[in-house]
Amino acid sequence: MEIHPSAIISPDAELAPDVKIGPYSIVGDHVTIGRNTVIGSHVVIEGPTQIGEGNRIYPFVSIGSPPQDVGYGGEETRIVIGDDNIIREYVTINRATTKQEWVTVVGHRNYIMAYAHIAHDCNLGDEIVMSNVATLAGHTTIGDNASLGGLVAVHQFVRIGTHAFIGGMSGIDKDVPPFMMAAGIKAKLYGVNQKGLNRLGFSKEAIGGLKRAYKIIWRDNRRLSEGISQVREEIESFPELEVLLGFLNDSKRGVMR
User: Contact, 156 vs 172, CB < 8 A?
Assistant: First the structure.
């Protein structure tokens, strides 16, 4: 274990033997940090917080501070962060409120760039990219492999589907479907995230099927329920299509168009 002499580590913190902690960082009570995690200088981690293995946490990051919610009364909510995440300078990740599952979750192998904010009760999957100053309001859910451009702002309770791509400076106030692109100050959909899916090896058949579904549901200007029914009639089922339609059926906030 390599801990700089100026770092302050609570005796109640649990650190794996090979954790490294830089100058002037503070690790509070009820914090657990897994093997091979490196924490830079001036990082503050408050508990209850669980951080997995192989993470790289850069200077001036704040993890585990209380939620920015006027109804929060000091309850012992928590944060769980998985393995192999890169968390760049000045990122803030807040503990949960008591309004959902009492936990803010960040999965594995995510790249969270400078000044990004993950609010209370958010739930992030794996291999997500959040570019500089991307901001999530409370209770946001993001699926695996989604990508958020710089200065994106996401409204509370919004869901962003797996493999979605959101352009920079976009305002997101409704659910963004899986495999789709969205952009704009008041964002709207711009079709299938074809380049991203190609890069990750999705088949031409799957991409073509998603493009047909997009046209039926959104370009043909049908009501959402009518578009879903039409897709069921015209397109033979395949896994990615089931993910898309399941996401649409489960939407509570409304789906972006």
Answer: no
Q: Give dist(CA 202, CA 59) in Å, integer.
A: 37
217 has pLDDT over 90: yes
Average pLDDT over residues 191-220: 97
CB-CB contact of 157 with 139 (8 Å): yes
The pTM is what? 0.97
With 0-12 / 13-18 / 19 or more C-beta atoms within 10 angstroms meaning exposed / middle / buried, residue 170 is buried
Residue 219 has pLDDT above 90, yes or no: yes
Contacts of 122 (CB under 8 A, 6+ apart): 104, 105, 106, 136, 138, 139, 140, 141, 142
Which residues have a catalytic role annotated? 120-121, 138
pLDDT for the residue 1: 87
Q: Which CATH class is domain 2-139?
A: mainly beta
CATH of 197-249, one of 1.10.40, 1.10.3470, 2.60.40, 1.20.1180: 1.20.1180
List the chain domain ranges: 2-139, 197-249
pLDDT at 163 (0 to 100)? 98
